[in-house]
Design brief:
The protein is an alpha+beta fold. It has three domains: 77 residues, Uridine Diphospho-n-acetylenolpyruvylglucosamine Reductase, domain 2; 117 residues, Uridine Diphospho-n-acetylenolpyruvylglucosamine Reductase, domain 3 (2-Layer Sandwich), CATH 3.30.465.10; 182 residues, 3-Layer(aba) Sandwich (Vanillyl-alcohol Oxidase, Chain A, domain 3), CATH 3.40.462.10. The chain has 14 helices and 18 strands. Strands 15-12-14-13-17-18-16 form a seven-stranded antiparallel beta sheet, with helices on both faces. Strands 5-6-10-8-9 form a five-stranded antiparallel beta sheet. It has a four-stranded mixed beta sheet with strand order 1-2-4-3, covered by helices on one side. It is globular, with a radius of gyration of 22 Å. The protein starts with 9 loop residues before the first strand and ends in a 12-residue tail after the last helix.
């Protein structure tokens, strides 16, 4: 008997040949063939899916645009993929409340554009912001360059609408910044990767749009000088809205094989610094900044006009796709270390002799370590390299993931390296909220 026959308010895809696009996300993980893909168009579909999943013993895997990098949305055995790309709803702005509400299906680019059209600002900006869906950013607590100043997605979530174990859609939180009536359950669900319930919408906090930007392309003659700069900036009272970097190995790849603009990049290593506070484009601000940078300011390019800024950021945005095209079987990790311990991390990485190139968010210590030869490395050796990388980050007070999440890709390492008390707590919450284990089974814990 077909467990999905007659499912209301939904499109159901069963043909195995048609299910191929849902087996992968942007990670190196490949899922197994799901029982089906369901695109719900209303709450009746979700209510019935939960009922049938419990009755028939299958799991439900949430999916947005499929741009995740941890295998969180790929199907595990005996599951149905719940593709929320057609979930109904519109973006509704409330300028007086400095917030907007949107469905999980809303593209993040449209959420950001709606805020900008009203002179407001939604900061989260993962590298996939032009193609990802809001729901995926909520589920993974997405970050991006702006996290350096503005924090992760969860910092901007006031309330969520979530499908829970009873099949109902429940609202957690309010459309305001103060709601202190017990623990914040909305924040429990944000970043949970769908293991407690599925996020189908949210209300997001906004800020007035920054009126000034100054973007600097900063070549470094000595790679080590960049590693000390995040701490020096903070101590001197500078808080960049973004601080990105390319290590010497990434820069060499870009120069040798990248687009024409990348082949002319200067320096042994390279950073992008951006500021967005009032006065950041004025002479006094820049003079103080240049004084702090000292010899690092040699060869500095400053952009305050939109097209110049976009040209600089285009180089950063293409890096991930460029490396993926050059090395299709690479494995990209996104470990975190405290900014004060960045030099120790890179010294440790050199001692480990792991063949890797690194770029990413130097301003908040979130490093994208890419093992380019992963496809040609024996699985056992690759796993050993990854565990060594994770242990190094943890030994310095860091974390396994800064913004991609755990999903399937890091689950084994997460279970091996995480405090057992933390795992026990997470499993207790999972059992309380999802006793039948239907929500994204086999992920994270």
């Amino acid at each position: 008997m077909d467990p999905l026959k007659g499912l209301p308010e939904a499109t159901v895809i069963r043909d195995p040949a048609a299910l191929e696009p849902w087996l992968r996300d942007e990670s190196h993980v490949r899922g197994v063939l799901p029982l089906a893909v369901v695109k719900p168009h209303g709450p009746a579909a979700l209510r019935e899916l939960v009922k049938r999943a419990k009755g028939e013993g299958f799991g439900l895997v949430p999916r947005g645009a499929g741009t995740g990098k941890a295998g969180g949305c790929v199907p595990t055995p005996r599951t149905v993929v719940v593709d929320l790309s057609e979930w109904p709803g519109t973006i509704a702005l409330s300028p007086r409340d400095l917030c907007l509400s949107a469905p999980a299906s809303a593209p993040l680019r449209e959420v950001k554009a709606a805020a900008e059209a009203a002179g407001l600002f939604y900061p989260p900006d993962p590298n996939s912001w032009e193609s990802c869906a809001l729901g995926g950013t909520l589920a993974t607590n997405a970050g991006g360059p702006n996290a350096c100043k503005y924090g992760m997605t969860r910092h901007w979530v006031l309330a969520v609408d979530a499908l829970m174990d009873d099949g109902g859609i429940h609202r957690f939180g309010i459309d305001g910044v103060k709601a202190n009536a017990g623990p914040n359950l909305a924040q429990l669900l944000v970043g949970s990767e769908g293991i407690f319930g599925f996020l189908v919408g949210a209300t997001l906090r906004l800020l007035p749009q920054p009126r000034e930007h100054t973007t600097l392309l900063l070549p470094a003659r000595r790679w080590e000088d960049l590693l000390e700069l995040p701490g020096r900036l903070g101590a001197a009272g500078f808080l960049p809205s973004a601080f990105e970097f390319f290590d010497p190995a990434v820069l060499a790849e870009l120069r040798a094989h990248g687009p024409e603009a990348a082949r002319r990049l200067p320096g042994e290593a390279l950073a992008i610094l951006e500021f967005d506070e009032r006065g950041c484009s004025a002479e006094p601000f820049l003079a103080d900044l240049l004084d702090l940078l000292g010899p690092l300011a040699d060869g500095l390019e400053v952009a305050s006009e939109g097209r110049q800024r976009e040209n600089i950021w285009a180089l950063r945005r293409l890096t991930s796709a460029f490396l993926k095209e050059r090395h299709p079987e690479k494995v990209s990790e996104d470990i975190v270390v405290p900014r004060s311990r960045l030099p120790e991390f890179f010294a440790g990485l050199e001692r480990l002799a792991i063949p890797a190139v690194t770029y990413g968010h130097l301003g908040d210590g979130n490093l994208h370590v890419n093992l380019l030869a992963a496809g040609a490395t024996e699985p056992e050796a690759l796993e050993a390299q990854l565990l060594a990388l994770f242990r190094l980050a943890l030994s310095l007070g860091g974390a396994l993931s800064g913004e991609h999440g755990i999903g399937l890709a890091k689950r084994k390492a997460f279970l091996a390296l995480t405090d057992p008390a933390q795992l026990q707590t997470l499993r207790a919450i999972k059992k309380a909220l999802d006793p039948a284990n239907i929500f994204n089974p086999g992920k994270v814990i």
